[in-house]
Amino acid sequence: MQNTDSLEQRSSIEAPSFDVIIVGAGFAGMYMLHLARELGLTATILETAPGVGGTWFWNRYPGARCDVESMQYSYSFCEELQQEWSWSERYASQPEILKYANHVANKFDLLRDIRFNSRVASAIFHEGEDVWQVSTAGGEHYRAKWCVMATGCLSAAQRPNIPGLGTFKGEIYHTGNWPQEPVDLASRKIGAIGTGSSGIQVVPELAKLAKHLYVFQRTPNFSIPARNQPMDSAYEAEWKQSYAERRMAARTMPAGILSDIGTKSALAVSPEDRLQEYERRWAAGGTGFTGAYSDLLKNEDANSTAAEFVRKKIREVVTDPAVANLLAPVHPIGSKRICADTNYFATFNRQNLTLVDLRSNPLQEVSENGLTAGSQFYELDTLVLATGFDAITGALSKIDIVGRQALTLKEKWRDGPNTYLGLMTSGFPNLFIVTGPGSPSVLTNVIVAIEDNVKWIADCLAYLKTRGAETIEATASAEEGWMEHVGQAAEGTLYTKAKSWYLGVNVPGKPAVFMPYVGGVPTYQKICEEVATDGYRGFVIEGRSESLRARQAVG
Ligand code: NAP
Question: Residue 356 forms beta bridges with which residues?
Fold first, then answer.
């Protein structure tokens, strides 16, 4: 049901009131609720899904699995929690991560303050009252002083604009919005579109089930074998003996992941040593492969040594040289998010799989019974869209967010998102964003990024509460300075050399702006802490007491 109330009507509606409204019950929203309660604030979460877990609730496609090791992809804020939980595999599967999310929700008694099946349609700041009115698609209204967008970076599934998609008579599934009920894929003629992380995980599973699987590939991607395995109990025990220290050490690493990162240039070692190092990392498995040398994401010559190594591996695994050639990526390795897989390339040796290269046979249309690429028609029963997300800003742009002077966030971000520290955007007081654009977010173990952002927001709320402050807002000049810094940090990296969702170019009409902050977790966290210690430098804080009315340091 559409929310059709006018702004004036909505303003006058009696609505349950909270100190904090949190949008989203993923890992960010759950931790935010926990900390808000610890501060003695009243808080509620509004969540579209009927359960917790956020992106892990929706991404339940066969093969969905995290590519950060389980011992690290979990909350660190509670020693008891990290000691009591046991992961069964080196890399956790989606069902296990969802089980963990539910465990956390129960342990911290979060469910009583989560309103499920509540998709937020709008959030409107009422000036004068200094209140956010948040309304759901179902027509419910809530009011709060503080609003925290815990909407996730990879939560708005991107459906491709393929002519005729709506006419297809078979089933269509999107990996990012997979049905909650069981899906029968056995003995189907399946077409899978997309070969990013999701496609690379789902393809081997689909191939096991399908009568025939057609993989429609536009851009091949780099993937490293995950070498997933049952959790080694000695390894788990080792972690648990010094969990807190290891979590702290992880936060000294750029991606917030405790890993073995090379400090030398790839070009400063002999070809033999380099090969040995790449072989060692290939055998160890996982996305840590690109940590082999310090300049793999900065220097194209260095990068091509790693890229060529992986291309050679693909050619060794895939028996048909023509297919291997099509699967060999040409962009710099790591410039698009690197993938981790289980038997992805080997799956292309199966008799029931056909790789269709969309670069030479462009996708023409979907019709009732299949799909045409180039001049060839492929008869299909089922379409699996592994076509990714409107990343980082997509979930926010689905909500009608209105700040001061009726400025909409969509309008403000028309040429690309602007934030201060990724946490707030000027013109939208009291609206916090967790892992927003301009923060390290997707370039990290996102749970680390989430915990750090949420803790910062909670500390900020505590500061505001003790001072009786009414509003906090990023200044335009602080925001400008931060965005300049974010842009400069991305310059000189190879991230901008590929057409990726980091830049938003996978979404038609989205401005091409590199959105994450590449400065790394330690640098970012230090800046965030300094800003707070410095009385929230770059924010205007206004409140009841006259002293707070004085504008704090600007810019
Ligand atoms: P993605 O990386 O954006 O990949 C989407 C794929 O769909 C690309 O191959 C893209 O081709 C293709 N595509 C999109 N529109 C198309 C169209 N109209 N016609 C043909 N092909 C089209 O999305 P994703 O695989 O869902 O992954 C997104 C991110 O989610 C990952 O990078 C990762 O951060 C996260 N993720 C993580 C895991 C994990 O932890 N293991 C698993 C899944 C996802 P082009 O490249 O040519 O655009």
Answer: 216
Whether residue 298 contacts residue 490, with contact meaning beta carbons closer than 8 Å, is answered with: no
pLDDT of residue 496: 85
* Alpha-carbon distances of 393 from 156, 400, 436, rounded to whole Å: 9, 13, 8
CB within 6 Å of ligand 1 — which residues?
65-67, 154, 160, 162, 175-176, 193-199, 201, 218-219, 337, 358, 363, 386-389, 442, 501, 506
pLDDT at site 544: 60
Q: How many residues does the chain have?
A: 555
**φ, ψ of residue 65 in degrees (nearest 5):** -155, 150
Sole residue written with tokens 């056995």: 186
Ligand 1: nearest atom to the Cα of 68: 40
Q: What phi and psi, each to the nearest 5 degrees, are found at residue 432?
A: -100, 150
pLDDT of amino acid 101: 98
CB 19 within 8 A of CB 146: yes
Residues of the chain with pLDDT under 70: 1-13, 544-555
Burial per residue of 250-275, b for 16 or more beta-carbon CB atoms within 10 angstroms, e otherwise: bbebbbbbbbeebeeebeebeeeebe
Residue from 72, 506, 515 whose mutation best tests the ligand 1 pocket (most atoms within 8 A of CB): 506
Residue 383 pairs in a beta bridge with: 172, 191
What is the amino acid identity at position 294?
A: S
Of all protein residues, the one whose alpha carbon is nearest to atom 17 of ligand 1 is: 160
Burial class (CB in 10 A: 0-12, 13-18, 19+), 510: buried
Which own/partner pairs from 246-253 qualify as long-range (CB within 8 Å, at least 24 positions apart)?
Answer: 247/76, 250/72, 250/445, 250/448, 251/448, 251/452, 251/521, 251/522, 251/525, 252/522, 253/520, 253/521, 253/522
Burial status of residue 319 (CB atoms within 10 A of its CB: 0-12, 13-18, 19 or more):
exposed
Nearest CA to ligand 1 atom 28: 388
List the one residue out of 418, 425, 390 whose CA is nearest residue 404.
425
* Sheet arrangement for strand 353-357: 171-174, 382-385, 189-193, 212-217, 353-357
- Structure confidence at residue 547 (pLDDT): 45
Q: How many angstroms separate the CA atoms of 64 and 95, rounded? A: 9
pLDDT in tens, 499-526: 899 999 999 999 999 999 999 999 999 9
